[in-house]
Amino acid sequence: MKLPRLAVLLAVTALSSYPFIDAHAQRVVQGDLQQQMSAAEFNAAGLNKLSPEELVTLNNWLQGKVAQAASVAVEQAREEGRQEVIVKNRGFSDFGSKDPIEATLEGEFRGFSKGRQYTLGNGQIWEQTDDTSVGGVRKQAPSVRITPGLMNVWYLQVDGLNTRAKVRRTK
Question: What is the pLDDT of residue 31?
Fold first, then answer.
């Protein structure tokens, strides 16, 4: 569905001032086509041929469409904000998602050892909290999966190894 230019403009304007979205949308929806368009645009669109009643009906319809588009844009912005918070904070808190975090370790992996820190390509840093150990392993930038367990416990598994270590996110 293609949105009218006025609705898109309203959505962009509303999103740029997120804390004031509802008030801003209410303010922009006010007014009619004569106030939104220049006299030349109004006449070029043939709107000067409408009766006053037809113009009121058209203005009401357009304001309803703009208000609806603004409402959809506001809800999308709120949902995107929620998703951003969830992704950014995974590992610090349990947000109910059981999906693993899949990433690449930065640098060389030299096995598991308690207290060792693992930096992921996405910027997250995880520290090993258990005594799991694997020695004699050297892998350059391996793929890893960090899966949630019970009670906000997380497990790191390196691609190609059957062993996994308990970790906690530090950054």
Answer: 64
Q: How far apart are CA 65 and CA 11, in angstroms?
A: 12
Whole-angstrom Cα Rg for the chain: 27
Cβ(148)–Cβ(98) below 8 Å: yes
| Cα four-point dihedral sign 168, 114, 116, 122 | negative
Q: Are 106 and 122 in contact (CB under 8 A)?
A: no
Q: What is the pTM of this model?
A: 0.49
Q: How far is CA 33 from the centre of its chain?
A: 34
Instruction: Write out pLDDT tens, residues 72-97.
Output: 877 777 777 666 666 666 666 655 56
The single-letter code of the amino acid at 119 is: T
Strand partners, 146: 101, 156
Q: Distance of CA 25 to CAs 47, 61, 118, 145, 160, Å?
A: 24, 16, 46, 43, 53
Give the pLDDT of residue 9: 45
- Tell me which DSSP letter residue 48 carries: G
Q: Are 105 and 133 in contact (CB under 8 A)?
A: no
